[in-house]
């Protein structure tokens, strides 16, 4: 082995090649082969590793895909279950709705038609109201003309009867005179013979005779000891003019008290067996209402055989309903003034244990000074104090509280619901909930829908109305919390309001009794038999009927 070859190879290889007797070229070949084999082995290992890695990655991807597939399958199954549950729930809710619709007579399906009908009804009401006023004027004119003709006939017939009676009286007096002269002649002859007996007979006869002789032979009848009625308790002392209101209960007439021509409103009710209790209850409530300036005042109550009469103060400003129908909606300042007076009246009634149960614009009048008067206590309830409640369907559709529609026991909170509905109607000219359909539909509308609050309402009113129209009566303002402290009434001086010292929105005119025609009416005679109501007839001591 040359030095050049030894330098190229390592020492060990030189030793091996020397021992084996191989040449440097052979060694180089073997080393090249070994290197190539090693490189091939490395490549093979790398390829195998890469294939393993790839297979592992594929397996990992496959496993991930399977896991994702399983997850997606589970998710899809869960979504399907949820969709099935929701569909079943929707079906059940739809079935319940269908049942409700069938139960309610299909009224819920016709809500749009009902709303259209309500709008049409309001237009028809307004037209009827206008036509009714025209008809009332024409009827009043007809009745006045008929009344005048009836009056003329009655006067003529009365004159004829008086003339006939006068003729009969004159003929009777002449007969009595002639008979009395003859009797006197006989008595004079007998007196000359029997003076003492005649004196005794005359004393006895004066005690026993019901009539005495006057000069000329005329007869003077002794006055009968009849008990005279006070003037306010006799229907003949009132002159009736026009009909203010009429219904199944009876009618309300505008009348004047004949002695002083004071205008009053007389409510005439028919006395029936089922109505005697409510008539007596209304009389009791009217007596209590004399203590509040914003409740209708009763001047007197009396009765006949078939009728009961309530003599009430006459409110010449008419009702809030007529104002709403005329103007469509009232200004906020007017609403604040009238509703504040209503708050005082309701709080007074509730402090006395009385629920009105029919509060609405029809039953809120405006008197001659421009202040409100709550009237019509025909269905009021008494003795509701503390936790005590009452029950029963009462009130006008549209103004009934939800607890009345749900046939639950209720208390004074129902008046605050009606108060909220009245305030809403004063502001918008409409009711917050539709009144068409059955009681079940009205209940559904109140429980599931909220009224529309116009943008022109003040922030204070927008805060107050939902608190008044609260379905939970224990949370309803007025029943829970003092409504006087609400920001809507922040500018009200309650002391001046209660004493009627605040300026009213307007002051109506008071007509004169001389300018009104008489409306002829006939009533059953006054009687004191068992049919009359006990302790019913009375006169308010504060009524100056004698002036």
UniProtKB/TrEMBL annotation:
<dbReference type="InterPro" id="IPR011009">
    <property type="entry name" value="Kinase-like_dom_sf"/>
</dbReference>
<keyword id="KW-0418">Kinase</keyword>
<feature type="domain" description="Protein kinase">
    <location>
        <begin position="238"/>
        <end position="489"/>
    </location>
</feature>
<dbReference type="InterPro" id="IPR008271">
    <property type="entry name" value="Ser/Thr_kinase_AS"/>
</dbReference>
<protein>
    <submittedName>
        <fullName>Protein kinase C delta type-like</fullName>
    </submittedName>
</protein>
<keyword id="KW-0597">Phosphoprotein</keyword>
<dbReference type="GO" id="GO:0004674">
    <property type="term" value="F:protein serine/threonine kinase activity"/>
</dbReference>
<feature type="compositionally biased region" description="Basic and acidic residues">
    <location>
        <begin position="171"/>
        <end position="212"/>
    </location>
</feature>
<dbReference type="InterPro" id="IPR017441">
    <property type="entry name" value="Protein_kinase_ATP_BS"/>
</dbReference>
<keyword id="KW-0547">Nucleotide-binding</keyword>
<dbReference type="Pfam" id="PF00069">
    <property type="entry name" value="Pkinase"/>
</dbReference>
<keyword id="KW-0067">ATP-binding</keyword>
<feature type="binding site">
    <location>
        <position position="267"/>
    </location>
    <ligand>
        <name>ATP</name>
    </ligand>
</feature>
<feature type="compositionally biased region" description="Basic and acidic residues">
    <location>
        <begin position="63"/>
        <end position="73"/>
    </location>
</feature>
<dbReference type="InterPro" id="IPR000961">
    <property type="entry name" value="AGC-kinase_C"/>
</dbReference>
<dbReference type="InterPro" id="IPR000719">
    <property type="entry name" value="Prot_kinase_dom"/>
</dbReference>
<dbReference type="GO" id="GO:0005524">
    <property type="term" value="F:ATP binding"/>
</dbReference>
<keyword id="KW-0723">Serine/threonine-protein kinase</keyword>
<feature type="domain" description="AGC-kinase C-terminal">
    <location>
        <begin position="490"/>
        <end position="547"/>
    </location>
</feature>
<dbReference type="GO" id="GO:0005737">
    <property type="term" value="C:cytoplasm"/>
</dbReference>
<dbReference type="GO" id="GO:0005634">
    <property type="term" value="C:nucleus"/>
</dbReference>
<keyword id="KW-0808">Transferase</keyword>
<feature type="compositionally biased region" description="Basic and acidic residues">
    <location>
        <begin position="79"/>
        <end position="164"/>
    </location>
</feature>
<feature type="region of interest" description="Disordered">
    <location>
        <begin position="63"/>
        <end position="230"/>
    </location>
</feature>
């Amino acid at each position: 082995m040359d030095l050049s070859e030894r330098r190229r190879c390592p020492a060990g290889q030189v030793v091996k090649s020397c021992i084996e007797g191989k040449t440097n070229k052979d060694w180089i070949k073997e080393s090249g082969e070994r290197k190539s084999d090693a490189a091939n082995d490395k490549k093979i290992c790398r390829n195998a590793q890469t294939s393993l890695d790839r297979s592992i990655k594929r397996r990992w991807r496959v496993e991930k895909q399977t896991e994702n597939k399983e997850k997606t399958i589970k998710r899809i199954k869960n979504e399907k279950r949820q969709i099935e549950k929701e569909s079943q729930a929707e079906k059940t809710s739809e079935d319940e709705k269908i049942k409700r619709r069938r139960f309610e007579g299909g009224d819920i399906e016709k809500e749009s038609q009902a709303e259209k009908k309500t709008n049409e009804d309001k237009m028809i009401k307004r037209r009827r109201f206008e036509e009714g006023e025209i008809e009332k004027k024409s009827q009043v004119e007809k009745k006045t003309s008929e009344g005048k003709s009836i009056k003329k006939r009655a006067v003529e017939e009365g004159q004829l009867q008086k003339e006939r009676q006068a003729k009969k009286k004159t003929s009777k007096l002449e007969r009595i005179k002639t008979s009395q002269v003859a009797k006197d002649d006989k008595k004079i002859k007998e007196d000359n013979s029997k003076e003492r007996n005649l004196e005794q007979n005359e004393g006895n006869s004066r005690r026993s005779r019901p009539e005495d002789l006057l000069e000329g032979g005329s007869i003077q009848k002794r006055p009968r000891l009849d008990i005279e009625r006070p003037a306010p308790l006799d229907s003949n002392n009132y002159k009736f003019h026009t009909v203010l209101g009429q219904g199944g209960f009876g009618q309300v007439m505008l009348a004047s008290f004949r002695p002083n021509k004071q205008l009053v409103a007389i409510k005439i009710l028919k006395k029936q067996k089922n109505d005697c209790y409510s008539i007596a209850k209304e009389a009791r409530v009217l007596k209590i209402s004399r203590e509040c300036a914003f409740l209708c005042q009763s001047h007197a109550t009396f009765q006949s055989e078939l009728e009961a009469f309530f003599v009430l103060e006459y409110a010449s400003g008419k009702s809030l309903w007529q104002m709403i129908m005329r103007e469509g909606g009232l200004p906020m300042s007017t609403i604040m003034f009238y509703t504040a007076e209503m708050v005082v009246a309701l709080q007074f009634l509730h402090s006395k244990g009385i629920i009105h149960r029919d509060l609405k614009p029809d039953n809120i009048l405006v008197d001659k000074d421009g202040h409100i008067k709550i009237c019509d206590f025909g269905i009021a309830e008494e003795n509701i104090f503390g936790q005590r409640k009452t029950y029963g369907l009462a009130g006008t559709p549209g103004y009934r509280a939800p607890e009345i529609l749900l046939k639950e026991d209720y208390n004074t909170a129902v008046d605050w619901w009606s108060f909220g509905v009245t305030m809403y109607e004063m502001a918008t000219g409409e009711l917050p909930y539709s009144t068409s359909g059955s009681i079940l539909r009205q209940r559904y509308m109140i429980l599931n829908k909220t009224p529309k609050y116009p943008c022109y309402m003040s922030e204070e009113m927008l805060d107050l109305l939902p608190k008044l129209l609260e379905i939970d009566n224990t949370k309803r303002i007025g029943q829970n919390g003092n409504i006087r402290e609400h920001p809507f009434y922040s500018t009200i001086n309650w002391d001046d309001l209660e004493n009627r010292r605040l300026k009213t929105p307007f002051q109506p005119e008071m007509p004169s009794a001389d300018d009104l025609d008489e409306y002829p009416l006939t009533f059953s005679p006054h009687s004191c038999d068992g049919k009359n109501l006990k302790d019913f007839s009375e006169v308010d001591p504060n009524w100056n009927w004698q002036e």
